[in-house]
Amino acid sequence: MLTCVIRYQIDPTKHDQFRQYARTWGQAIPRNGADLIGYFAPHEGSSTLAYGIYNIESLAAYEAYRARLAADPLGRENYLFAQKERFILREDRCFLKLASGGPAT
Question: Can you give the pTM of this predicted structure?
């Protein structure tokens, strides 16, 4: 099992747009095959950092999931919403493997 962590740098004046984006992924991500842990918006401290976190079985499963998500009407709509509203300034994605033991190792 891999955990995908997406680190977003967002426009600090557009938190509401990011929250809408996150709520939409809350519907689209699970129905396309990833185990969504959640999307996290700024609250205290940095006003520009936000995160999306989900689990996926493997990199091969991730590639299939991304194709399904891109073809999903809600997924396409959300990609277009982000492009139109321009609230995401930067997006970095990394894949992590649980190192401490437990069910996801």
Answer: 0.89
Secondary structure string (H, E, C) spanning the chain: CEEEEEEEEECCCCHHHHHHHHHHHHHHHHHCCCEEEEEECCCCCCCCEEEEEEEECCHHHHHHHHHHHHHCHHHHHHHHHHHHHCCEEEEEEEEECCCCCCCCC
Inform me whether the pLDDT recorded for 97 exceeds 60. Answer: yes
Phi, psi angles (nearest 5°) of residue 33: 115, 5
| Phi, psi dihedral angles at 6 (to 5 degrees) | -105, 120
Instruction: Tell the residue number behind the tokens 């299939």, with chain if given.
Output: 64
The predicted model gives 69-77 an average pLDDT of 95
